[in-house]
Amino acid sequence: MIKKLLFVCTGNTCRSPMAEYLLREITADSSNQSLEISSAGISAISGSEANEKAAAVMAELGIDLSEHRSRNINEIELSQEDLILTMTRKHSRALILNHPDLADKIFTLKEFANDDHQIEKDIQDPFGLSEEKYRSTREEIRTELKLMVKKLKDFSL
To answer: Are 87 and 8 in contact (CB under 8 A)?
Structure first.
């Protein structure tokens, strides 16, 4: 059973916090209140606030990122995580290279959520792009999270 789930991106100010907070919202009414959801970045500067555009598009859904502070992946005891979901294959490869013993619990979000092996595996970084790009990234993440939650529910039966 998955108790601790970690989302990983580059700076932990856009994609991974959006995934973290969206999943908290999606699972808020579920019976699985024991799921601990967090996020970190491979190149994160610890303590940074969420990106302004990421916060704005999340606020459109009533989700407040103002409490989020970035964490660097090196601050986390990865062996304690049950599942580590990255935003890109590059993130996954970097983690597996540094932690080969954890390879069986590291996937991209899209790899884990989808059984379609033809699908693009990466969620592109919207950093520096338009608010509309952040909005479409948010929706892409949300779609994948809903697939993931359904898969986890089916798996736990």
So the answer is: yes
CATH 3.30.470.30 for domain 4-155: no
pLDDT tens profile 80-92? 999 999 999 999 9
Record the pTM: 0.95
Cα-Cα-Cα-Cα torsion 44, 122, 114, 37, nearest 10 degrees, comes to: 10
Hey, which residues are catalytic here?
9, 15, 125
Longest C-alpha distance within the chain, in Å? 42
The candidate with the shortest Cα–Cα distance to 18, out of 1, 36, 35, 37, is 37
Interatomic CA distance for residues 105 and 118, integer angstroms: 21
Contact status, residue 69 vs residue 55, Cβ threshold 8 Å: no
The full set of domain ranges for the chain reads 4-155
Q: Which residues contact 115 (CB under 8 A, 6 or more apart)?
A: none
Query: Could you tell me the pLDDT band of residue 119, with boundaries at 50, 70 and 90?
Result: confident
Beta-sheet strands, E only, within 3-157:
4-9, 36-41, 83-86, 106-108
Q: What is the pLDDT of residue 157?
A: 42
Size (the chain), residues: 157
The residue type of 11 is G
